[in-house]
Prior knowledge:
By secondary structure, the protein is α/β, with parallel strands linked by helices. The protein has a domain at 40-46 and 70-199: Ribonuclease H-like superfamily/Ribonuclease H (Nucleotidyltransferase, domain 5). Helix content is 34%, strand content 17%. The protein has helices at residues 19-29, 97-108, 129-137, 155-169, 174-186, 190-199, and strands spanning 37-45, 74-81, 84-92, 117-120, 141-144. A 5-stranded mixed sheet has the order 3-2-1-4-5, with helices on both faces. Strand 2 and strand 3 form a beta hairpin. The longest helix has 15 residues, at 155-169. The chain is globular and about 60 Å long. The model has no long low-confidence stretch (mean pLDDT 92).
Amino acid sequence: MPARAAAQKKSLIAAERDKAARQAWRDELAAVAPQRLVFLDDTATPTTLTRLRARAPRGERAIGRVPHKRGPNVSLLASLSTRGMGAAMVLDGALARESFEAYVEQVLLPTLVPGQIVVCDRLPVHKSARARTLIAGAGCERRLLPSYSPDFTPIDLAFAKLKQTLRGAAERSFHGIVAATGPALDAITAADARGFFAHCGYPISG
C-alpha cells in the first residue's frame, strides 16, 4: 500500500521561536562536553496532584477525588547534570528573585566545579545579575537558553518524571509535598539523566 498522510493530533510549538538563535545555540554547544552542563530550573507543584488514570471493572467509571479548591503551589528549584539531580530547594509559594539568588548562593554554588556551564531559561528571575556574578565567581558561566526552547532543556523531562511520582503520592499539604519530593528526586537516576540529555540533543559519548 502506498504511503499516505494520516490525520493526527498536532504538535504545537511557539510561533515566536527564532530558528537562527536556536541553530546558533546548537553550534555553540556542539564543542562543549555535556558533562560540563548543569541545567537549572524551577517547577510548581500544586496540592491537587493525583494520578490521571486508574483501573476499574469493565463498563464502570474510575472515580478519583481531589480538593476542589487549589491550595498554594509549592515551588521546587533544582539542577540536573549528567550525574543526575543536583542541588534542590523547596519553597512555599511562588519563586521570587531573592529566593532564586539565595538558592544560587547557598545551595547551588557549593556543588559547582570550575568550568561548568549553568544553563537557565529566560524567566525574569533567572536573569538575575547577582546570580550571574555568583556563578562567575565560582569559575563557571551562566548561559540563557534561546526563547521558547523547552526542548533544549533536559531538566524539563526530569520534572515530568518527578511529577508522575508526586501524583502517586497525592500529598495535600506543603509539608507532605516536601516529604515526598526527596524520594521523587532520588528516583531520577544517572541513567535517566543521560537519557534526558541525549533526547534533548546532548549525547554522551563513551
